Amino acid sequence: MIQTKDVSQETLNLVVKLHKDHYPDNHATKFWPKKLLHRYMEIFSESDNTIICITSDNKILGYAIYGCNIELTINTFARENLLQIILFYLSSPHFAIKLMSARIRSTVRRLRTTTHNSKDWILLSICTDRSDPNIAKTLIEKFEKDGSKKGFNICKLFVKKSNDVAIKFYLKHGYNILSIIDSETCIMAKSI
User: Rounded distance, CA 125 to CA 32, Å?
Assistant: First the structure.
């Protein structure tokens, strides 16, 4: 039987394993040491944000991270784990160059426009084991339902422009592309 539930300390290790096994290869967090990735997931479960997972027979089939203070939570994580993050990037030149490039684009973007604020209901991440296409649909519906319950009218998410599968999925589920904030990131939104 498939269930949606909040991630607990017991299921956090399974969520980390799913992330390492199925997250896109172009995303640095897939390659973080397990301890650092575990802390990253844990800080979301301890914050006002939400991590939910879909399980069947005690197996994690997918998870989603979302909330309205995503940027604050990420900044808190980065401050608390700065040394480990720096060590990862020093040992991974490919990701170090990508990070520097992303930071420069992000700074330019922030100077040009404000794309979201802490009052937005934002989906940070969805990851599934790809065993059932309905898992991602269930996760996005839960994200939207929780946003509506909390009084939000619009759901937003960020997706890499090169991720055609995700963009098609979100368009199919009623999301529109609001803007492209740098050469590789689309902001998508849907009224709920």
Answer: 16
